[in-house]
Amino acid sequence: MKAVKIIAILFLVYIGLVVAFESSLGYYQPGGQGTLVITTTNEDGETNDRVLSRIDNNGQLYVAANHWPRAWFNQALENPKVQIKSAEEQGDYLAVGISGEEHDRVNGDGLPLMIRILTGFPPRYFVRLDPQ
Fold first, then answer.
1. Across the strands, what pairs with 83?
2. What's domain 2-131's architecture?
3. Residue 9 β-bridge partners
4. pLDDT for 80-93, tens place per residue?
5. Closest CA relative to residue 16, chosen from 86, 118, 106, 115
6. I need a surface site. Which of 15, 57, 60, 80 has the fewest CB within 10 A?
7. Which pLDDT band, with edges at 50, 70 and 90, does 108 fall under?
8. DSSP class of 132
């Protein structure tokens, strides 16, 4: 019984760590040279900005939903006309969800284990950004 309590406490501490890490990323949205800002539109017509890491693969631009909070991803799929801003480009893009071989190619080696641990092992989805 004592072992079950210890495991339950460790699990709750881990969940707290994931929530704290994900919340800090959502709040601070760290940017840098390898990031871009994507502007999505929700069903009410409100726009939302999100800082994301850019992925350049095979001459195409991609972004990934690497975290549990992924409202931007769902908005991009529902209303695929998005805008991006980065040091390299700015403009209107069409967000295209990918799967299969293209997903596997873009995913490559995946994320480092430490990032996967800190984010609670979320599934990883990608959007290809096609210039309009």
1. 39, 92
2. Roll (2.30)
3. none
4. 999 999 888 899 99
5. 118
6. 15
7. confident
8. -
